[in-house]
């Protein structure tokens, strides 16, 4: 298994959600070069609400029908955007961002949160990064059931 996924699994032993997700965002930011934002959006009261993250201050509330994060929620599929300037409706939290990877965390088929990564480099995220974040999302989903998040 990828070393980042192993580190994420170890950090997922922390039962407090905020403490745990804070460390996950720091771990991802620290492990991968070329990121300017790494963090979580949590599904709360019919919208996406900013969770623990590393990077510049970001949008605190995102409706399900807006942006890359909204599309990730409605499609329940990872969204890999090679060039955010070509994505209609992209929400720019940091004007330096050029590519984005957003992955849903699904529990019993429902999206409960999202992992969102931004890079100032176009095409930063490929199939390998998507696979690693999909594995992370599966592990977060298991931990959320185990810890009753
Ligand atoms: N770019 C996202 C918004 C979140 S920030 O990237 C942290 C979007 O279009 O939904």
Summarize the topology.
Layout: H1 3-11, H2 17-31, E1 37-44, E2 47-55, E3 61-62, H3 67-75, E4 79-81, E5 99-107, E6 110-119, H4 127-146
Helix pairs in contact: 1-2, 1-4
The structure holds methionine sulfoxide.
Mean pLDDT: 97
Bound ligands: methionine sulfoxide
The largest sheet is: 6 strands, antiparallel
Query: In CATH terms, what is the architecture?
Result: 2-Layer Sandwich
CATH topology: Beta-Lactamase
Overall description:
This protein is an alpha+beta fold and 149 residues long. The chain has a single domain (3-147), classed as GAF domain (Beta-Lactamase, 2-Layer Sandwich), CATH 3.30.450.40. The chain has helices at 3-11, 17-31, 67-75, 127-146, and strands at residues 37-44, 47-55, 61-62, 79-81, 99-107, 110-119. A hairpin with a 5-residue loop joins strand 2 (47-55) and strand 3. Helix 1 (3-11) packs antiparallel against helix 2 (17-31) and helix 1 runs parallel beside helix 4. The chain is globular and about 40 Å long. The site of methionine sulfoxide (SME) has 13 residues, from helix 3 and strand 6.
Short summary:
This protein has about 150 residues and is of the alpha+beta class.
Keywords:
28% strand; 149 residues; 36% helix; alpha+beta; 6-stranded antiparallel sheet; binds methionine sulfoxide; globular; 4 helices
């Amino acid at each position: 298994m990828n070393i980042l996924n192993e580190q994420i699994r170890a950090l997922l032993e922390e039962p407090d959600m905020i403490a745990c997700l804070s460390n996950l965002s720091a771990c991802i930011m620290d492990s991968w070069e070329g990121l300017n934002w790494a963090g979580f959006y949590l599904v709360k009261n019919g919208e996406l609400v900013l969770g623990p993250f590393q990077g510049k201050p970001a949008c605190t509330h995102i409706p399900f029908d807006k942006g890359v994060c909204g599309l990730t929620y409605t499609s329940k599929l990872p969204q890999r955007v090679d060039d955010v300037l070509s994505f209609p409706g992209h929400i720019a939290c940091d004007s330096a961002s050029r590519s984005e990877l957003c992955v849903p965390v699904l529990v019993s088929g429902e999206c409960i949160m999202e992992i969102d990564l931004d890079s100032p480099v176009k095409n930063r995220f490929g199939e390998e990064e998507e696979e690693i974040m999909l594995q992370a999302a599966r592990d977060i989903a298991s931990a959320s059931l185990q810890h009753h998040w």
